[in-house]
Amino acid sequence: MNDFYDLILPREIRFRSGAANELPGLLPALSERILFIAGNHAVKSGDAATIIAILEQAGKKVILLSGVPPEPAPAEVDKLIKAGRDNQCDAVVALGGGSVIDAAKAAAALIPAEGWCQDYFTGAKKITEKGLFFVALPASAGTGAEMTSNSVLTDPETQIKQSLRSPYMVADVALVDPHYTITASPYLTACCGLDAFVQAAEAFTSTRGNSFTKPLALTALKKIAHALPAAYKNGNDMDARTEQAEGSMLTGIAFAQCGLGAIHGLAHPCGSLLSIPHGAACAILMTSVFRFNAETCPEPYAEMARALAVGNTAEDFVAFAASLAKELNIPSGMKEYGLQEEHFDFIVKNCRSGSMKSNPRYMTDEDARQILSGLMN
Ligand SMILES: [Fe+2]
Question: For residue 146, how far is its CA from the centre of ligand 1 (angstroms)?
Fold first, then answer.
């Protein structure tokens, strides 16, 4: 356990059904022109139109942008920056999944800055002050992106995902309104939900965990394990959606402070190489990596098993994770995404992120190869 830590969080976090209706009152009083970045799904479902109506009724001019691809390249963020500059926007609101919120987060920071996203992504320029006021509304539960101070972007040359990171990038307001997660399909619910489950477990076992993050991570884990199967089976189950949204939010608060683990370390290169959605990659990897970690660090896994009331041992936790993935119809391997032995070099070479460093057990290249070998089914 680490005794000293810094906490970087949104200035205000509102969690309740209906919280999105409070959006106009949370924006700076003098803001007039809002850059609203919405995910494609939120546009199709009509949720984006609802937010636009809420803002327009409050007298705000709304500039809508959508079409952000998963883990976008810096050039995609530049489209948002350009729209914000051209329209002289004075605040940014995002409604969507992790990639939409991450892209909006970077745009809000860089619209009033000099240069373009690539300058900051490569480290040629540094973010030195707060950008535009930024409100994040997650439309999935979830990635936790509304709580973090980084944007996961993809280098178009190498296809490697890496983060643009700054304490100035954290949202001013995170509005977690479970109502906006109702339209997620069962598949999206499963992938995002298991991403949150993994994030909770990795935050709980992180070597950077502390007295603030561990209780949050454990509470989040219990909520997600309880709510996710119900939300998957019946997307209109508002109690399940609400508990899942809270679990995801608490997970985000925790891991934004203490980092993640080897599942996220491996998921990023697997995802970029094989085009596996982030949540699916985490869900497929989780059982093998939990088992690997639990071999030498069983106690936190046994503690999670006891907290979930699924047994007393680390093996009980691993078995529970495997059964949860099966219940949510997650494939047991990456064969359908085309995983081949020839991909291992790329994945192993590019898995050594910050997440890997906070994994409770050191994972050698050979260990990573063995885990990947077990996922070729
Ligand atoms: Fe994740």
Answer: 12
